[in-house]
Amino acid sequence: MIELENAAYSYNRDDLLRDMTIRLQPGSFHFLVGPSGAGKSTFLKLCYMELKATTGSVQVFGKDVRDMDRDQIALARRRIGVVHQDCQFLDHLPLIENIALPLTVAGRDVTSQRENLEELLKWVGLSDRRDATPPELSGGERQRAALARAVIMDPDLILADEPTGNVDQQMSERLLALLVELNRMGKAILVATHDFGLIRSTKSQVSTKALRIKDNQLHLAGAEL
Ligand code: ADP
Question: How far does residue 42's CA lie from ligand 1's centre (Å)?
Fold first, then answer.
């Protein structure tokens, strides 16, 4: 699904991330940990093809990102749902239309997807907020809306960058329950987080692995997590 071989990335002269060799399998659940500034968001951007490795190879769905043109990257991205840290929305559009945006961008007929959209809103517990605009939503509602938008295209892989950073414990658990459910449906999940409590409670529900960024390298973390 995502395969890195001796991949490195640098924003300037020094490598922020180096010697990365890792394979994320379909249906897997990984946490990505490491101190702030370690390169977690950067790693997610490499997986999402927003950045290209400065050396080494990154393969996404079996294709080397270096060999992909813009159209191929756009197509591959439809198979990846991303929940960004800051959950940006179009503030003038009601929630339901924000969640439908990836369909619109992909040129799909949104009207035929109404039922699907309503079901998704129900799944994230936001049916009664369907007509609210993003500024009217709470932090937890925004996070769940971002998750709904990330899965509307039925992606094979979901990347989440600190999805529980700005929400309380109860909401964190609710979000994680949704991610666990998606994983049980066969989707691969990669979550960057600082929240070790969350990692522990997830580990008791599904099989997870932890990747740790330390000293500019990515390690499969041991049992200490
Ligand atoms: P994390 O998600 O672990 O907090 P990031 O991947 O956001 O880490 O950032 C890792 C390092 O790269 C930080 O020192 C950050 O300042 C730097 N960085 C991030 N984006 C850029 C950029 N566009 N240009 C230069 N440096 C950047």
Answer: 6
